[in-house]
Design a protein that fits this description.
The complex is a heterodimer. Chain A is an all-alpha fold. Chain A folds into 2 domains: 2-96, no CATH class; 153-358, MetI-like (MetI-like fold, Orthogonal Bundle). Chain A has helices at 2-29, 31-77, 79-91, 104-141, 155-186, 188-201, 206-220, 229-241, 243-254, 258-266, 271-309, 314-324, 329-358. In chain A, helix 11 (271-309) runs parallel beside helix 12 and helix 12 (314-324) packs antiparallel against helix 13. The longest helix of chain A has 47 residues, at 31-77. The two termini of chain A are 60 Å apart. By secondary structure, chain B is of the alpha/beta class. Chain B has a domain at 11-98 and 176-274: Rossmann fold. Chain B is 36% helix and 24% strand. Chain B has 9 helices and 10 strands. In chain B, a hairpin with a 2-residue loop joins strand 1 (23-36) and strand 2 (39-52). The chains are: A mainly alpha, B alpha/beta. Chain A binds chain B through residues 257, 259-260, 262-263, 265-269, 273, 277-278, 281-282, 284, 360-362, and chain B through 75-77, 94-97, 99-101, 103, 105, 107, 109-112, 120-121, 124-125, 154, 156, 174. The complex binds adenosine-5'-diphosphate and magnesium ion.
């Protein structure tokens, strides 16, 4: 009897609670919301951990190099020199700082100084343009080339150059690889004829592609004053990155579902209809998977190729900073590293979006 | 109940019941050999079968005996190793829209809508019709298979049963002389299968085209057919037996099930299969 009563009370209590729990459900209760919150929470936590380890790591490297410097001064020049060295390092004087893996704060400072630098250069550029406006107009009127600003490129300019190069290379890869892939995919004979060609050239490294393109483009541009670094780098990037698209397109076209081919046969579709109404649409998902790989490969090899071609993009920026060896060079290199990574990630997301748009099976892709 | 085994063209011309002019499909001494790593595999040999105009024939036989092979040879999708196949006296030389095919899987183009899938064939077969006329034909058959609201649905948005309805509409819309069906309802649940059988037979009653349908469902074979053709097990499969189904048309499922001969027919087929 007693139990019954308590049970009843319990249930009454629960009933009273009900509107409140309902309210919370409405306000926060969506499981998705909680899940999303948890996911972002974990991401933020892992970023913080990463920064923490990075900070500790760079600090210990810094200390190691500082100790070594002081030790060296002590053995080579005696106690006074060692004390001076220690004081110099502690004062933050740039001339005697250990040159090692920069800390997150140093990298952050470099990013800001790079952005500030961009505005300074932009001002110079604008000033130059206004100054030369009249002269240039005269030059153009006389049929001559205008004088352009040839000063140092800012970091943001190098990023833009790199993006421009990668898109030009990607477009080139698309224009070469997709049509050839379709033709090879349609014909088993051509497929076996071209197979050795693809197998041999696919694994060739970006550096070699660059050298090959350089040999050819240099000769074509012989005697012309124009700058061919951009042309050489985007062609090399395109040639280097197009193989995934070529192979995927050929595979997609060659492996169209037999049922679709049978339908086309039964309906007696002409070649044109068969290719454009059946074969191409059905291989689009694979073609776009190939294009996505091509774009990410293009971005990856770009850095090495720009470096070789002396094209004023991120690759050259990294190389010059490394050669430069200035105090903040290392942190600028790390900034470039993050920018390269983030842009690569964004490009991949972009392609994934396009890929999902053309894919008729929405579950495909990652 | 009457059964008859048909082996040669002569059976017909000699007893004079049916006339050669009415033979729509004539399979004579048909042979099919698949080359395999272990040597040639003779799937079909000495296969003789005649199918009359406006006849609905169902084919049953054990899995792997060569039913699909035979049907795809009639469709012209699979080369003939020996003997010949003629449609209204003309030898088959490849696929063509005079033979509509409904495959086991609906085989719709997933990037097209239901209407576009049907139009793909209609455009090909009626190139001189206006666009509206062609669309009307496609819509008419989609309506016939009960897909009024789904013209603009992508094939991937349709259930398996609805996709096969589009498959039926696509096959009828090209107005073929012969309709070839390879276990078209095999992948569907029994309720949907019943619905689609009704739809198929309703359109067929109206259009009266020759139909050859492979099935592994004995009841389906009896319900739909004028004749059930039984194939022997491979290798070297041929026609083992033929059963005439003398139910009048149009049939309803109930009238068929209630018919006194139904269980005799059924037993005949099952005895053959279990033999
Ligand atoms: N392309 C092929 N090459 C070799 N053997 C095949 C091929 N297609 C079918 N077969 C074989 O021929 C036989 C008949 O196949 P099939 O016509 O699909 O049988 P069913 O449709 O009656 O189940 C099977 O043993 C199958 O393995
Ligand atoms: Mg089969």
């Amino acid at each position: 009897m007693k139990q019954e009563i308590t049970l009843k009370q319990e249930s009454q209590k629960l009933n009273v609670m009900k509107p409140i729990t309902e309210f919370f459900k409405l306000k926060f209760g969506k499981v998705n919301f909680l899940k999303g919150f948890k996911k972002t929470g974990i991401t933020i936590l892992s970023i913080l951990l990463f920064l923490g380890f990075w900070h500790l790591g760079s600090k210990s490297l810094y200390n190691k190099e500082a100790d070594y410097k002081i030790e060296k001064a002590l053995t080579e020049q005696g106690q006074a020199a060692a004390d001076a060295e220690r004081a110099c390092i502690a004062s933050g004087e740039s001339g005697c700082q250990p040159n090692t893996l920069p800390s997150p704060t140093q990298v952050w400072a470099s990013l800001q100084s790079l952005i500030a630098d961009h505005y300074i250069i932009k001002q110079k550029k604008d000033a130059f343009a206004t100054k030369m406006e009249a002269t240039n107009q005269k030059l153009i009127a006389n049929g001559k080339d205008a004088i352009v600003y040839t000063g140092r490129a800012s970091f943001i300019d190098t990023v833009l150059t790199s993006i421009k190069t990668v898109f030009a290379g990607f477009l080139l890869a698309l224009l070469i690889a997709v049509p050839i892939g379709i033709i090879i995919g349609l014909s088993p004979t051509l497929r076996s004829a071209f197979n050795w060609f693809i197998q041999i050239f696919k694994p060739v490294s970006p550096v070699v592609w660059y050298l090959l393109v350089f040999m050819i483009v240099k000769t074509i541009y012989i005697g012309k004053s124009s700058d061919n670094a951009f042309v050489i780098s985007f062609i090399s990037v395109g040639l280097c990155a197009m193989w995934a698209t070529l192979v995927n397109t050929a595979m997609g076209v060659a492996s169209v579902d037999k049922d679709y081919i049978n339908v086309a046969k039964v309906l007696k579709l002409g070649t044109f209809q068969k290719v454009f109404k059946v074969i191409l649409p059905s291989s689009l998902p694979l073609i776009f998977t190939g294009l996505r790989i091509t774009l990410s490969v293009a971005w990856m090899v770009l850095i090495a190729i720009e470096l070789l071609a002396q094209s004023p993009g991120l690759g050259l920026f990294v190389w010059e900073e490394f050669q430069n060896g200035a105090n903040d060079s290392n942190s600028k290199i790390i900034v470039a590293m993050f920018v390269i990574g983030i842009i690569g990630f964004l490009l991949d997301r972009l392609m994934l979006m396009v890929q999902q748009m053309v894919s008729f099976n929405k579950n495909e892709g990652i | 109940m009457s059964t008859s085994t048909i082996n040669t063209t002569n059976t017909y011309s000699e007893n004079g019941i049916l006339y050669p002019s009415k033979v729509m499909l004539d399979l004579k001494d048909l042979k099919k050999v698949y080359p395999t790593p272990k040597g040639d595999y003779v799937v079909l040999e000495n296969l003789n079968l005649q199918i009359m105009e406006e006849e609905f024939v169902t084919i049953i036989g054990h899995s792997g005996c060569g039913k699909t092979t035979m049907l795809s040879m009639i469709a012209g999708l699979n080369p003939i190793s020996g003997g010949n196949i003629a449609i209204l006296g003309n030898p088959v030389k490849g696929p063509g829209p005079d033979r509509g095919v409904i495959f086991q899987s609906p085989s719709l183009m997933p990037w097209m809508t239901a209407l576009q899938n049907v139009l793909l064939g209609v455009n090909q077969v009626f190139p001189h019709a206006t666009k509206t006329q062609r669309t009307d034909i496609a819509k008419y058959y989609l309506h016939k298979v009960g897909l009024d609201g789904a013209f603009d649905k992508k094939a991937t948005e349709l259930s398996q049963g609805m996709q096969q309805r589009v498959g039926i509409a696509r096959a009828f819309a090209i107005k073929p002389k012969v309709l070839l069906l390879d276990e078209p309802f095999g992948m569907l649940d029994s309720l949907t299968r019943g619905e689609l059988q009704d739809i198929l037979i309703e359109i067929w009653n109206k259009e009266k085209i020759t139909a050859v349908m492979i099935t592994h469902d004995v009841d389906e074979a009896i319900f739909l057919a004028d004749r059930v053709v039984m194939m022997t097990s491979g290798p070297k499969a041929k026609i083992g037996d033929v059963l005439n189904i003398d139910f009048e048309r149009p049939r309803t499922r109930k009238s068929v099930l209630d018919h006194p001969d139904y269980y005799t027919y059924r037993k005949h087929l099952i005895d053959f299969l279990e033999h």
